[in-house]
Automatic annotation (TrEMBL):
The keyword Signal applies. Residues 1-20 form the signal peptide. It comes from Lentinula boryana. This is CBM1 domain-containing protein. Keywords: Signal.
Length: 242
């Protein structure tokens, strides 16, 4: 039984090693938490971190190294732990994308993202280290992910509701339009008369997530208890910064 167990572990580690040494396609995934596939890029391409869960082969040279732990191939105890490494740059903005961040205290330079990077969750303002990347196309706010994620604003239950939650979905929004004015993000819908289209709220939940809401009222007026007024802005620096 012990011998069979060791053989299984050896085969698993060998399989993980072969996968790690194989080459991803151009613009293909090459790393991220839990990734067990190829970690090398074609000649002239480098593995660049998009977020903690996704790295992508992009044109150009690498400027650093990230360690990727394979959950399926890792073992502990007498057999040790197996890890694969891939050359990567720091999290670099992809062509045509933007970071989105708030600019007012207490959430100065918090960045728009999912609670779990790249997943269908509520929209939050979080650390620059896990900042997502975005495009606004056809009125949709689209988070760079595989598959892409779309910002969804909840329906207004009645006229007394003055803030609407924002979440991510793998299907496009069917109501409302995202746009930008200068470098600020706006949201509008014909059925709601908003006095300020770029007014947002950040409201922490009981788990410490800084949830993003559309503010249907005036900026910095009758702010809901526990929330902070914010505007959110495109940022097109090479990397997200605090």
């Amino acid at each position: 039984m012990v011998k069979s167990y060791k053989i299984c572990i050896t085969v698993a580690l060998a399989f993980a090693y072969v996968n790690a040494q194989s080459t991803a396609s151009q613009y293909g995934q090459c790393g991220g938490i839990g990734w067990t596939g190829a970690t090398l890029c074609p000649s002239g391409w480098s593995c660049n971190v998009v977020n903690a869960y996704y790295s992508q082969c992009l044109p150009g040279g690498a400027t650093g190294t990230a360690t990727l732990t394979s959950s399926s191939a890792s073992t502990s105890g007498s057999t040790g732990t197996s890890t694969a490494t891939a050359p990567v740059a720091t999290s670099t903005l992809l062509p045509g994308n933007s970071f989105i961040r708030s600019v007012e205290d207490p959430y100065f330079h918090y960045y728009l993202q999912s609670i779990t990077p790249g997943n269908v969750t509520a929209a939050i303002m979080g650390s620059y280290t896990s900042a997502a990347q975005f495009q606004v196309t056809g009125g949709q706010l689209i988070q760079e992910s595989t598959p892409p994620l779309y910002a969804i604003v909840e329906d207004r239950a009645n006229s007394t509701v003055m803030k609407l939650g924002v979440s991510w979905s793998d299907t496009p929004a069917t109501g409302g339009t995202f746009d930008f004015s200068g470098d600020t993000i706006e949201w509008s819908i014909p059925t709601i008369d908003r006095p300020q289209l770029n007014a947002w709220l950040v409201c922490p939940d009981s788990d410490g997530n800084n949830l993003l809401f559309v503010n249907l009222g005036y900026y910095d007026y009758e702010t809901p208890t526990g929330c902070a007024d914010e505007t959110i802005h495109f940022y097109t620096g090479a990397t997200a910064v605090p």
